[in-house]
Amino acid sequence: MKMNNISEIVGFIFSNGDNLVCDDRYEKTIISGIVKKKTSLRNEGKLNNFFNDISDEWSLTITLNEDENLLTCSNSIDHSFVSEYNGLQLLPDDKLSIKLEIYKNTRKANRNVYCEKAFNEWVQSRSAIELLKTTSSDIKRNGFVNFNIIENKQAYLYSKRIRVNDSTSVNKNLKAYPEYSNFDQNNEYPYIGSDFRVSEKKVSCPFLQSRLTNLSNLFSITSLFDVTYLQGENLFYQLKGYKFFQGKIPAKDLTEKYDIYSKINNWIFDDSANIADKLGISKNIISLHITANNIILNDSVFSSILSGHKIYLKENVSQYLKVRSKINDELADILKEIRSSLQELRTNYQKSNFLYISFFMSVYVIRTLIKKDFEQIFTKDTTVLFFAFIGISVIYLIYTIWSVITMRDRIKKHYQNVKSKNLDIMEKSDIERILKNDSEFDDEISYFNTRISVYVILWILTMVVLTFAVLYLSEAI
């Protein structure tokens, strides 16, 4: 037996077509009423075909005159229940009552709805805050609550946290962004407006849709305003922008007229980038368009916020380009310092060679051209003088090495300072990108170290070669 309207079917089985009353709530469904005309039940097998369609646990009670429980069964109907029911003999004034209680599974995200009309009546009797209090613990545990309407599979409504006939899983991690707002009940209700935004629907459960609209706008405001808290059914708020406002509004009044807050909220929090900047701009512009007793916004406010953000970005881009240009200029200066240090090392090496060449030329001219002496060009005196020059050259070499290494270390420190001093206005990754992950600087330092080694080796080799030459030509040896 295919289940459609469960109360009608139960009424048909036990009461020959009389409708029973259905009370469909969040926790359980109760179908009850008077059996106006008792009929015999068919065999228990056919009855269980119907009751097997009930996926939740259930109990069935037959009562006489509203105070005497005659028959009870749970989760299945056996032969004895059918026999006893069929054997009941009623007096003319006796009233036979039936009560079917279905206990909905409280651990799963899906809640079965067995009577759509009764469920809509239950939702209508609850405010948005009451609905949230009822469902919030399950939303926190499972990520969402889905109302599975048994008799109407065509019904459909989707929001991230509460939906109809949609069991698509979502991220269970709730993001309330407490670092950006000050909602007093954030731990109890860790939601933002987009959690309850209805994105898809088919005409069904109109009262559920209106409650979700209330919740979406409510949590959009708690995310946008500086101080908010719920007291009963009222939302108290404070907003600090260009102007300061405070007041309260009943949550039930947060209807479609306040949807602009949901639109702003979605724009701010759907993209995790620049939340603080977008939030600050939104607060300032909102404060220019509300009054002490009226916080309704029109669509033009959202356009103003978007324009304000574009202007803000444009100014930031200009500032960003200036900072990037400054970093590149400082890098160029640092590279120039490195090359200047290499130039100093090369110049000192050339000066040292010039000193040797001058000395050799002087000795050679004096001994060969003036004194006409072509043997033992280097006397004892000139040999001593040469080694004195070698000693000075060694000292000069040591000083030059110390000087350029000190310069290199100072340049490295300068480079790190350039990076660190811009961290307060730029992301580290962006600075690394501008500096190409230090590749250009590292290449220059590597080249610098190689050139130092080359010049030092050349300097030492020059002194060694000249020393051997003097030793060979000296008369003192």
Q: Mind summarizing the main beta sheet? A: 5 strands, antiparallel
Low confidence ranges = none
* Total count of strands: 14
**C-alpha geometry:** elongated
Class by SSE composition: alpha+beta
Strand content: 15-25%
Q: What is the helix tally?
A: 12
In whole angstroms, the N-to-C terminal distance is 125 Å
Mean pLDDT: 80
Radius of gyration: 45 Å
Order of helices and strands: HEEHEEHEEHHEEEEEHEEEHHHHHH
Trace the largest sheet across and list its strands. Answer: 1-2-5-3-4
**Share in helix:** 40-55%
What key attributes describe this structure?
four-stranded mixed sheet; 15% strand; 477 residues; alpha+beta; 12 helices; five-stranded antiparallel sheet
Quick recap:
By secondary structure, the chain is α+β, with helices and mostly antiparallel strands.
